[in-house]
Design goal:
Length: 406
């Protein structure tokens, strides 16, 4: 295993002019990279009608939701961190929440303007307090030669986009998508996943000790998407290949994970085969659902005694949708829309990364999504874009339709 320390949190030296050439390149790259990234992972899934058409079980429950601007304000208090996508959360305990972001704008000048910002491949935030309307937020990124850099730093020509994380025992496990340049029309490609292991999560993130775990690869599948789930003595993790909507499930014994050992994965191959070591049996994994994306969330809702999967549906219909299942292996209901982002009517906007954040309080359920744009100039100038958009909601039965938040 290779061990390294997380880099310092901030570097605010240097002048805005030093970043101008990089900023011009960054603007053009960013407007295209998000489109390409989402296309490569096939987020263009069939659009659905934003109504309760999710199957008999899904029709028994639905979510009413509304914009929660007060919760989103916490992302805008730092003049150095100017937006990021992804936006996955991890409960660190003791009132702390870790946020994982993909490509992020960092303005070392502190002017709060993206025209002087640098694009880093990933960043994180440490939220203190579970209620986002009153929580304190601190953002962290890396430092490379006095320039902002990714928190999970590049390794040669490859870089990482965070996928998910979970605390197991006293350690934090973070799953990351591994990306490299490629000689194709896209210019890059996903080549697998890595797992980062932090053993001192009580410290500030700029003092974390980070170890790269051995991460067994499986036929190009990216493990760690969605939300890791500890259940019945095993850590369950979702995986996908990015070429279609099929999502698979892999698990490790919790006892092994507590030691930082991910070398013995067992893949779900269906009811007939169960959980197997694919390298030994040569059995292919079986998808647990076929309408997935690379960004979604899964959590257990005790009130309805079912797992809930939340994601944005597609580019053509970027509603937030819900699917449910009695167990992680399914069967999962067809995804049904429950919230239509008002931004979807603007032709140059992209809406993605819909997620549920059960660790957050202040309302029954908290969701988020990201709004980006195909217009490079607008991305830099419009500070309403590229911050997580927060939504609050609640589960209702059909007879309770029209219920309002207290």
């Amino acid at each position: 295993m290779e061990t390294e320390h997380a880099p310092p949190s901030r570097q605010v030296s240097g002048s805005p002019g030093d970043h101008w050439l990089l900023t011009i390149t960054m603007k053009l790259y960013k407007s295209l990279s998000v489109i390409v990234f989402l296309l490569i992972f096939r987020l263009l899934l069939p659009a659905g009608v934003c109504a309760g058409s999710g199957g008999s079980q899904a029709a028994q429950y639905r979510i009413e939701a509304e914009r929660w601007a007060e919760a989103g304000a916490m992302f805008r208090d730092d003049p150095h961190w100017l937006g990021g996508d992804g936006a996955a959360t991890v409960d660190l305990g003791d009132g702390r929440v870790l946020w994982l972001f993909g490509d992020s704008f960092v303005d070392v000048s502190g002017r709060g303007e993206r025209s002087s910002a640098t694009l880093v491949r990933n960043s994180i935030a440490d939220q203190k307090g579970y209620d986002p309307t009153s929580a304190e937020m601190r953002f962290f990124w890396g430092n490379d030669a006095n320039e902002p850099a990714a928190f999970f730093k590049r390794r040669g020509d490859t870089w990482f986009w965070p996928a998910s994380g979970i605390v197991v025992g006293r350690h934090l496990l973070v799953f990351l998508m591994k990306i490299q340049p490629a000689d194709n029309d896209l210019g890059f490609e996903p080549i697998g996943w890595r797992a980062a292991w932090i053993d001192n999560i009580q410290a500030r993130p700029d003092g974390w000790h980070l170890t790269w775990l051995i991460s067994p690869q499986q036929q190009g599948l990216v493990a760690g998407i969605g939300t890791p789930v500890l259940k019945d003595g095993y850590l369950h993790v979702f995986a996908a290949n990015g070429r279609d909507g099929k999502v698979y499930l892999v698990r490790w014994p919790e006892a092994a994970v507590r030691k930082g050992d991910l070398t013995t994965p067992r893949w779900w191959t269906g009811k007939a085969g169960g959980w197997v070591d694919i390298k030994v049996t040569a059995m292919p994994p079986a998808p647990v659902f076929k309408d997935g994306q690379m960004e979604f969330s899964v959590s257990y809702h005790s009130n309805i005694k079912r797992y809930i999967r939340v994601q944005t549906r597609s580019f053509l219909n970027p509603c937030l949708s819900i699917s449910t299942a009695p167990v992680l292996t399914g069967p999962w209901t067809r995804a049904a829309c429950f919230f239509s982002p008002p931004e979807q009517d603007e032709p140059d906007l992209l809406i993605y990364a819909g997620k549920h954040h059960p660790v957050l309080t202040g309302t029954d359920m908290v969701f988020s999504y990201v709004v980006n744009t195909t217009n490079a100039d607008r991305l830099v100038a419009d500070m309403q874009l590229y911050y997580p958009v927060m939504i609050r909601g609640w589960i209702v039965r059909p007879s309770e339709a029209g219920h309002q938040m207290p």
